[in-house]
Structures are given as C-alpha cells and as structure tokens.
Amino acid sequence: MSVVIYSTKNCPFCVAAKNLLESLSIPLEEIDLTSDIEKRLEISTKYNWRTVPMIIINDNFIGGFDELNNLYSEGKLEELL
User: Which residues contact 64 (CB under 8 A, 6 or more apart)?
Assistant: First the structure.
C-alpha cells in the first residue's frame, strides 16, 4: 500500500487529509511543495491538478481532500488500499 500526499505548510485541506488518513491508521508519505515551485508545477502538470493536497493511492491519482473524503464516506477508500 502506498499513499502519497503532495502538500504545502499552510493548507487546511492538506491537514484534513492527513488527519483523516492517520485516524484510519493509514501510513502516508508527505511531500512538501511549499518552497519547491518547480516540483509543484511538475506534479500539477502531470496530474492536471492545480491545488493541494494532491493525493496518490497505489500510483492512482485520486484528487484532493474532497475526493478522499467522498471515497471514505462512500466506503470505497478501503477498496483502493
């Protein structure tokens, strides 16, 4: 299982996403894009997504916090893990 969250330091949705995953005891790798504008542009272009968090589960881009929370609410998050 692999969960990667691209985030920035002052992003409340990043904190919410990390809190949700941690409350479910799901290990995650956080990659801070706060001061790496090049990497942020690269990742944004790769996934065609402009905001953080950008969440990847098992090499599948799922979106941001809203998408993560929807998967959890619908009982579909465990299927991806």
Answer: 13, 17, 49, 51, 52, 53, 54, 55
CB contact at 8 A, 2 and 57: yes
The SS3 of residue 16 is helix
If DSSP codes are grouped into helix, strand and coil, which group holds residue 20?
A: helix
Q: What are phi and psi of 56, to 5 degrees?
A: -120, 125
**pLDDT tens by residue, 23-36:** 999 999 999 999 99
Strand segments, DSSP code E, in the chain are 3-7, 29-32, 54-57, 60-63
Q: Which amino acid is at 40?
A: R
- Tell which residue, 30, 27, 81, has the closest CA to residue 59: 81
pTM score > 0.90 for this model? yes
